[in-house]
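[audit] Reproducing an earlier prediction to check determinism. Same input, same settings, fresh worker. If the tokens differ from the archived copy the diff job will pick it up downstream; this log only records the rerun itself.
[audit] input (164 residues):
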Amino acid sequence: MKIAKILSVTVLATGLGLAGVFAGPNTTQAEAKSTLKTFPKSFRHNWYESAGKRGNAMKITAKKAAMRYDNNSDFGHFQLHARKLPLRKIKTKYKWTWIYAKKHHGTIHIALWDHTVNLPLEGNYRVKTKTYKHRKIKVLQNVSGGQVNSSYYTTKKLAAHFNK
């Protein structure tokens, strides 16, 4: 009887040990090691919040973003740079026009490279689709805490219609 118990415990321990070896570590939830090198293709567009010449607007290309805010008529131009995560104190030289973007809970977080000042249009953005006159249109939404703070549209006419 003792030999049977010892043998079953040995087989059980060996089976669990081999299962742990073959299963390996769980890498499905691995965090990113750096920020984005380019903006996603769905973000690359001209985005307008209002129809006027001085409304908030964003022009996003693969590695550049131009932002107009606070009723200015000129765009501020920023360059996207990759950066290692986690974000720590900056040891390299940088320009004040550098920004970074990282994925954050289904959104893209856009911020200045240096955290001593805030970018007026800094935040978490996502692209959604909306139906307008039986057609699907893309909408860039500034989101925080599950709420949409502002919405940007691909044309000034759409922005004027939705942001009255």
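[audit] rerun output stored. Observation attached for the diff report: The CA atoms of residues 19 and 161 lie 60 Å apart.
[audit] end
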